[in-house]
From TrEMBL:
This is Alpha-ribazole phosphatase. InterPro entries: His_Pase_superF_clade-1, His_PPase_superfam, PG/BPGM_mutase_AS, Phosphoglycerate_Mutase. PROSITE patterns: PG_MUTASE. The keyword Membrane does not apply. GO terms for molecular function: fructose-2,6-bisphosphate 2-phosphatase activity. SUPFAM superfamilies: Phosphoglycerate mutase-like.
């Protein structure tokens, strides 16, 4: 039986973050601040005994994970990457200005920002509207993101021993989606770079007990 504690971390700030660009499966390097984000998070978690360390397969998550590991009193013996923990795919909108993107996505339904959509209809609708607006038809829906998340969790259950502590470095909209799935209000509370959320994972259930601290 799996009883796992997963420390879910957003990667440090990247160049595209600093430019307010859509950054899903496209990638960019950590900024100086981003490296500091990761180091600070590692220092906060330095006394936690981690048994496993995971990240998505995108370099910004891998680099953040490695910087965190350098701060720990004891480095976990297992470190892996898993593409199931990638950021949400934004399709055609990858790399574009975030504000302009959400205006384009939302205006046909009467919205100008992502937060307006979420406040009125929720995150599922925000993902649906982006998918509808994407000429490439690649932008992921809420259901597709959750399916990936659950596949990743099942791999953790398979890999980890009972009562393990797991470090997981992933991405902002991905974390926001899993928080929403666990009935946490994320309106105007987007995961900060280096922010810590804690998930309790059993064989058949998951509970997000801390979000974006």
């Amino acid at each position: 039986m799996a009883n796992l504690t997963v420390y879910v971390i957003r990667h440090g700030e990247t160049l595209l973050n600093s430019f307010n660009r859509m950054q899903g499966w496209c990638d960019s390097d950590l900024t100086k601040k981003g490296r500091q984000d990761a180091i600070k998070t590692g220092q906060t978690l330095s006394s936690v005994h981690f048994d496993y360390a995971y990240s998505s397969d995108l370099n910004r998550a891998i680099d953040t994970k490695n910087l965190i590991l350098q701060q720990l009193d004891q480095v976990p013996p297992v470190s892996k990457v898993n593409s199931d923990f990638r950021e949400v795919l934004f399709g055609y909108f990858e790399g574009l200005d975030s504000d302009a993107t959400w205006k384009q996505v939302g205006q046909p339904a009467g919205y100008n920002t992502q937060e307006e959509i979420i406040a009125d209809k929720g995150l599922i609708e925000a993902r649906r509207l982006m998918h509808l607006a994407d000429p490439s038809n690649l932008a992921e829906t809420y259901a597709q993101v959750i399916k990936r998340w659950q596949a990743g969790l099942n791999q953790l259950r398979k890999d980890a021993h009972d009562n393990a502590n797991i470090l997981l470095v992933t991405h902002g909209t991905f974390i926001r989606t899993l928080a929403d799935y666990h009935h946490i209000n994320t309106l105007d509370n987007y995961p900060k770079n280096g922010g810590i959320s804690i998930l309790k994972l059993s064989d058949n259930d998951s509970q997000l007990i801390t979000y974006n601290e």
